[in-house]
Amino acid sequence: MEKEILWKMLAEIFEVDLDGITEHTLLEDELWADELDLQELEFMLDEEFSIQLPSPNWKERLETLTAGDLLTMVQEALQKQGRAEKMSSSESNEN
Fold it and tell me: Which of 56, 75, 40 has the alpha carbon at shortest distance from 27?
């Protein structure tokens, strides 16, 4: 569930097809991310999940940061809040 939502956010921010985003997609080299894009992403993550990414220096890693790295950070932040299991189990109940 988190992956789907995050990929939709990235597609919206960077105006790319959802199918073009994989866990290996580099934010800077492939999506042309810059500091303003990351601020928008932070805002969207806060709105959607009510989280802040756990690594305070994640923006400094922009050159090597992938969509998969972001997904891991989102999942870690949700686990820290104890919400990942709840989201996963509610997703399973929907199927």
Answer: 40
Residue 72's H or E segment, with its range, is helix 67-80
Q: Which residues pair with 3 in a beta bridge?
A: none
pLDDT tens by residue, 58-90: 777 778 889 999 999 899 888 888 765 444 444
Say how many C-beta atoms besides its own lie within 10 A of residue 70's C-beta. 24
The pTM of the full predicted model, rounded to 2 decimals, is: 0.76
Instruction: Please spell the DSSP secondary structure of 24-43, one letter per residue.
Output: T-BHHHHH---HHHHHHHHH
Sign of CA dihedral 31, 36, 38, 44: negative
Please give the single-letter amino acid code of residue 61.
Answer: R
